[in-house]
Amino acid sequence: MAEQKPNAPARDRYAIRRSPGPHPSGVHQVTEYQDPGYTIVGNHLTQHRSLSGLAIGLAAYIQSLPEGAPVDIRTLAKRFPEGRDRIAAALRELEAYGYLERVRRRTDDGRVVTLTISYNNPQATRARRARETAEQAKRRTAVEPPRPSPDPARTPTPVPNPPRVRTSPRPVRTEAPRVRAEPSPPPPQPRTHHPPAAALLANLRRDDPRLLLSVRDIQRLTPPVAAWLERGATPDAIRSALTTGLPDTLRHPAALLAHRLTELLPPPLPAASPIDPPRARPSPLQTCDGCDRAFRAPAPGRCRECRHPAAAESVATGPG
After folding, report:
1. For the segment 230-261, what is each residue's pLDDT rounded down to a tens digit?
2. CATH number of the domain residue 72 falls in
């Protein structure tokens, strides 16, 4: 029993042997110098843990395109083998995490188009905008210093009124009564604060860059816009009334908007009779996953022309 018998093999036979040089498994990087024409993509995008591989690839491809290149769903479906549904889902992922922003704008001929904005670093963009907002607030505070408190030592003492001297009465003149002009009606005031009205005024600059309003102008024009909304006017109707037919030279946009909100104020809606059924509100605007155009629908998807292309072609050609 005192003699030792090595029945099991040594541990070094089953240990993992690693070479002192580069690792035998994993990725190997081969870096070469590239001519001009490359794109810098951050690791926050390529190593994103929540985005799919298709979304990461589309984001890198969009960042490599020149300014103004088309990036609608139909163009991307022709470029990549994935279908329109998968590409539309990947674009929605990028939009949810801030790498893409799709803004609807109205052209001069009345059409609604979609503008796609690509951000290569959304976190840095949000931080920069926050710093700019803070700097603007500091400059605004520096321009408007607080009013100094009144000094009691420099306050003049009131002078007593001198005694009145009686004079002979003046002859009374008989004049025709003057007709006073009726004052203009004051701007409508809502009962409560209305945040959608302020958002509508802030977004007017997207329709016309000249309608860029300051914070003070938005606070002053919010009550009239809220009165329009309380009287049943839709945001599209208010935006059309404020932006249609603007003059070529616009020096005081806030004064023009205040005049239109006061003069074009619609009457309040009459009380609905119990016989008339309530009218359904129109569906919101959605971006088509097939042709990237705006259409009204309760949920995102495809427009009628993309769902039924054969019916649309027959209506366009006509009989014969």
Report:
1. 888 888 888 888 888 888 888 888 898 999 89
2. 1.10.10
